[in-house]
Design goal:
The protein is built from two helices and five strands; from the N terminus they run αβββαββ. It is α+β, with helices and mostly antiparallel strands. 19% of the residues are buried.
Length: 102
Amino acid sequence: MFGSGSAMSASNRKAKGTRNEHRSMRLLEAAGYACTRAAASLGAWDIIAIGSADVVLVQVKTRDWPGSVELETLRLFSAPANARKLIHRWRDRQRLPDVREL
């Protein structure tokens, strides 16, 4: 029942997602970026990270990659030329996320 993840309550899923967003922020901050979370905004990006030479927009996912509709929304998002669009996917018991650049 609990192995599939489908039985997890909505509040537990949200808490897990928030933890993974903070984990991604710590990685970016360690790389020299100033980060902010777009908490509860329901916007396209979960984290905006500003570096000395670029901006990184990050969508954080727990377990699964985004679906095709969400992926297309992220790809079409208008951003400056020096912005990188990343997806961080965190899997259970993983120390670092899988990262895809769009």
